[in-house]
Amino acid sequence: MITIADEALLRRAIAVAARAVELGDAPYGSLLAAPDGTVLVEAHNTVRRDDDITAHPELKLARWAARELSPEEAAGTTMYTSCQPCGMCAGALVRSGLGRVVYALATEQLVELNPESGAWPVVQQDGPALFEEARRPIETYYRSS
């Protein structure tokens, strides 16, 4: 359920996205808030500026949270973001342990506004293969942890 407080923070994430455009960057912005609504960190998309395909704001904030917050602190945070996180960012959000994500535009809505954003080709994946060989470093690592 999205509250009035959520809407205020979501508006701030949208403002971060608007500021990104003013700076010549792609129109995506995010922020991470503590349970009391205090903004901990903000970021916007810098894929073009940084020449880095991973420079999405959601991924930047997931990295920050994993580095700077304890697992308990991360679990209490909420990310507010102008668009629904992509698959890459969604995976990072899970691994970072964030508690919740609130987004303004769904992926389907973004694609309606910018059809090119939904035109990513599917990368062929073949596997699994070489299980016996591939399992050894995995088992070695997790037995020693």
Describe this entry's structure for a reader.
This protein is an alpha+beta fold. 49% of the residues lie in helices and 16% in strands. It is built from 7 helices and 4 strands. It has a 4-stranded mixed beta sheet with strand order 2-1-3-4, with helices on both faces. A hairpin with a 5-residue loop joins strand 1 and strand 2. Helix 3 packs parallel to helix 5. The longest helix has 19 residues. The protein is globular.
Q: Roughly what is the average pLDDT, rounded to an integer?
A: 95
Strand content: 15-25%
Largest sheet: 4 strands, mixed
In terms of structural class, how would the helical and strand content be classed? alpha+beta
Q: State the end-to-end distance.
A: 39 Å
- Side by side, the strands of the main sheet go 2-1-3-4
In angstroms, what is the radius of gyration? 18 Å
Can you write the helix and strand succession as a string? Answer: HEEHHHEHEHH
